[in-house]
Amino acid sequence: MTNGRGADGHGTADGPGGADGPGGADRPGGADREAVRVDHVMDGLRAFGANYTEFTRRFAAWLGLHSTDAAALVEILYAEDQGAPLSPARLSERVSLSSGATAILLKRLEQAGHIVRTRESTDRRVVTLRSSPGIRPRAMAFFGPYSERMAEAMAAYSPQEIQRFEQFLGTLRSTMDALLANEYENGGPTPPAP
Fold first, then answer.
1. Which of 23, 47, 51, 77 is spaced 20 to 30 A from 116 at the CA atom?
2. Cα-to-chain-centroid distance, residue 182
3. Measured between alpha carbons, how far apart are the two ends of the chain, in Å?
């Protein structure tokens, strides 16, 4: 699982100017420096994902919920904030649970008073998931510092840089989606023979 690291697991960005020095990929060793940069980006993405998971875990503990229930609640709140509330089927996809497990999870969240199910579509069979009035202020209190600090961090970048980040993350997401739908559709590639 390397992205340009040497056999010892470390980058190979030694030489004149180091990883960020002059010359870049067009000088000898430049390809190695670019591979190290890619590694640093991937490491950063992994660390961000781990931290986000930890925020969700702490939100779960704060509310006294199982971490999967809290992750589902975060997805419901986020979708509402985006103006695109989730159906149970869409939530099932977002939290990678079967429809049956999602139904049980939703029953727990509903009984705890954290969500409500509504029928807002003209097709009365379609269920829409909404956060309850009591949970939103609690979620805002918990995630308020997170949102403020993230906004401060992002403010250091120009709109053009943010647009490039957005394109980059969109490319990574579509690549991951394609991998999950194809190469990893049945759990993963065929293991090598022993």
1. 51
2. 20
3. 20
